[in-house]
Amino acid sequence: MSWLPKSNIVVPIDFSDESEQAIRTALELADDPSHVHLVHVLFPLDSVSPGVVWGETDDTKREKAVNDYFDTYLAEKGVEGVRHTVLFGNPGHEISEYATNNAADLIVIPAHGYHGIKRYVLGSVAERVIRLSKCPVLVLRRHDQD
Fold this sequence. Notes:
By secondary structure, this protein is of the alpha/beta class. The protein has one domain (9-145): Rossmann fold (3-Layer(aba) Sandwich), CATH 3.40.50. Helix content is 42%, strand content 18%. The protein is built from 6 helices and 5 strands; from the N terminus they run βαβααβαβααβ. A 5-stranded parallel beta sheet has the order 3-2-1-4-5, sandwiched between helices. Strand 1, helix 1 and strand 2 form a beta-alpha-beta unit. The relative contact order is 0.20.
């Protein structure tokens, strides 16, 4: 098995600066931009969420908003030809499952580098993906921690 190029790369993004770096890295590693799958995971709404209670939002509206933002974000960054999807659930689990279901060769994920209590409270998506993934995971280091 050759290390490069990859023909099926999953890139979880949250639209941060680190996400852009992950997209650029995946595009460098992929043999074609259409083989890069961008994934954004939304936590499901519960029945007591204010938007649900007031009837102002639902998962369909949220998914449409994220897909619309995907188009804007990718155009602003000059990224063309990639695929994107929105998932609902626990990010670590959903990303790993998506990669498995789509026979991913690689997951490229940014590390936000939280530490201390913030890491404990927020958890680490990258860490969960590493533990749950059945394919190699490339974790990118934050630039501001050099």
